[in-house]
Amino acid sequence: MTDRTVLTTCNRDCPDACGIVATVEGDRVVRLRGDPNHPVTKGFLCHRTGEYLHTQYSPERLLTPLIRRNGVLTPATWEEAIETIARTMLRIRAESGPEAIFHYRSGGSLGMLKAVTDLLFERFGPVTAKSGDICSGAGDAAQLTDFGEEDSNDVFDLLNSRHIVLWGKNPVVSSPHLVPILKQARARGAILISVDPVWHASSKLADRSWQPRPAGDFALAMATARLLLDRGHMDPAAADYCDNLDAFHALGRSKSAADWCAEADLPVTAAEDLAEALGPGKPTAILVGWGMGRRANGGTIVRALDALAAISGNLGIPGGGVSFYYKRRRAFQPLAPAPGASHAAPRTISEITMGEDLVAASPPVRMMWVTAGNPVVMLPDSAKVSHAIGSREFVVVADPFLTDTAMLAHVVLPTTTILEEDDLVGAYGNHWVGNVRPVVPRPEGVRSDLEITRMLAARLGIPGFDADARTWKQRLLAPALAEHGIDLERLEAGAVRNPLAPPVLYADRRFPTPTGRVNLLTEAAAASPDVPGYPLWLLSLSTEKSQSSQWAHAPEGPCVATVHPDSCPVADGESARLQSELGEIKVRVRHDPRQRRDVVVLPKGGHYRDGRAANALVRAAVTDIGEGGALYDERVRLVPL
């Protein structure tokens, strides 16, 4: 049998959006490797995608719809599943109005065609939708508040940097295709500085590493600002493009650098190091990790980093910038109404507090549809979220696997994998846009989200959804791309850099804020109080071996809790109970003397049913701005079994 290769793009929730070259024998994929012609992927894949064939051909994959009968999920035909769903939706809308139906779509797939599902529910209702962003809400809001835009310099502009600060960022795990660029920058003479409470794989890349206390990033940023001001290392032109400059100066000078550093639990040399890099050592790029935004004061922390880049003159210059996100949607046009539009959802339910809000909603939410997400594991207070979803009258989950959330459903619809999808995707860790094509046909009993939407729309009598994937993809591409010679055929030939994204952001020092200037913050971050009896901060972090709750090889036994040996009454390798005020899970202790004594690190995405979900311990709390999840503010303790 002759091998063939097929080029596609990874559409999972990862910043890299890698080009994939799949080797196919017949209708089976036998090998995956990175696209050698993709400027960012450069021929290699992360472990998660390199091992994806274990997921693709897992015996646990769903290959037929399931309907709950007498309390048990049993196989059904597609016709029966769609008929059951449509009949229920029409009845609930007639009895209680469309707001009694809640459509929850998350980012398990970043394919742009997933928004067609939003469009269907908008036209059917509009129905209740989610608000907030569990992952990046605070950071998004911070940069939009400060700059009026959320984007970054070209990723290869890092080769122009003299210093690169990895502030709360672990690219070895979270963005592995950034690592070769960082190494190339170092080879050119750039100095890498890591700032993170956790010692992780990327700490080894750095020339220097600083480990502030959790949530101490704001204080460290203000200590750095104080030194920039005191030493005259501010950009002389900052007053020309920054609002609130005097108020920010006053905030920085409200404490000495030493006092600010004491709050961060670091020596003043840490702030001196950063101030030297941002001032005389520029151009300096600050790469902002997403974890810092997942604190109660997360938005203010990111705003402080924005301000450091602004006042030091590192905005709008090659090798500078403060990068939190790349605007992946810039190459596309929306299909559904934006929030606040005339046909937007009549009400929303916060993603962060969904466990409470779903139960308390009035009028009641009777039906829930889940697309591209596993909220029982993703959201805080897993038990409450599980109860809220499980107590709905009718729940539909579209997923390739029987997740913790799917186990609560009345109907489960098996969907396509990344190797069967037909879509478009933009990266949020670089400016490349890629085409997603089916590498192999989907199994007979599986349907894509687009096919599900088309089937349901036809049964509900809603016109306008009979187009195929290719037509929808053409509708999605921004018209301005055509001026640069980019159309669907060009994308099908290989990934392209989005020409609408400037190589250097804000090069003209003009910002899309109401005043056209940077909006500097003026108030300090609220302190995170200690919780008596719970001395450790719980940090549930991404791993190299899982994509959120999707593991190529699911680990066995208790979750591993990594701690400094001095902060744990349990021996290395022994089992313990990890407790918060909300609950407890069983863990296996791993000692690591490189960690701070006030943190415990768990892998992200463990299954709730296996007792491995860190969010079973985390209370639902909203960030200071952006309606994000304050997931990293939970305090815990380790107790011997």
CATH fold topology of the largest domain: Rossmann fold
Examine the secondary-structure arrangement and name the CATH architecture of the largest domain. Answer: 3-Layer(aba) Sandwich
Strands of the widest sheet, in order across it, are 5-4-17-16-15-6-7-14
Counting DSSP E segments of at least 2 residues, the number of strands comes to 29
Largest sheet: 8 strands, mixed
Query: What is the CATH class name of the largest domain?
Result: Alpha Beta
Domain module tally? 4
Helix content: 25-40%
Indicate the proportion of strand residues.
15-25%
User: Segments where pLDDT lies below 50 for 5+ residues?
Assistant: none
Shape: globular
Average pLDDT, rounded to a whole number, is 95
Structural class by SSE content: alpha/beta
Q: Separation of termini?
A: 56 Å
Give a structural overview.
The protein has 641 residues and is an alpha/beta fold. Helices cover 26% and strands 20% of the residues. It is built from 19 helices and 29 strands.
How would you briefly describe this protein structure?
With 641 residues, the protein is α/β, with parallel strands linked by helices. The chain has 19 helices and 29 strands.
Question: What is the topological layout?
Answer:
Elements: E1 3-9, E2 19-25, E3 28-34, H1 47-50, H2 53-56, E4 66-69, E5 72-75, H3 78-96, E6 101-105, H4 115-124, E7 128-131, H5 137-147, E8 163-167, H6 171-174, H7 179-187, E9 191-195, E10 208-210, H8 217-230, H9 238-241, E11 242-243, H10 245-252, H11 257-264, H12 268-278, E12 284-288, H13 298-311, E13 322-323, E14 348-350, H14 354-360, E15 367-371, H15 375-378, H16 382-390, E16 394-398, E17 411-413, E18 423-426, E19 432-436, H17 449-460, H18 469-476, H19 488-493, E20 496-497, E21 518-519, E22 536-541, E23 546-547, E24 550-551, E25 559-563, E26 575-579, E27 584-591, E28 599-603, E29 635-640
Parallel strand pairs: 6-7, 6-15, 7-14, 8-9, 8-12, 9-10, 11-21, 12-13, 15-16, 16-17, 22-28, 25-27
Antiparallel strand pairs: 1-2, 2-3, 4-5, 4-17, 18-19, 19-20, 22-29, 23-24, 25-28, 26-27, 26-29
Helix pairs in contact: 3-17, 4-17, 5-13, 8-11, 8-12, 8-13, 14-16
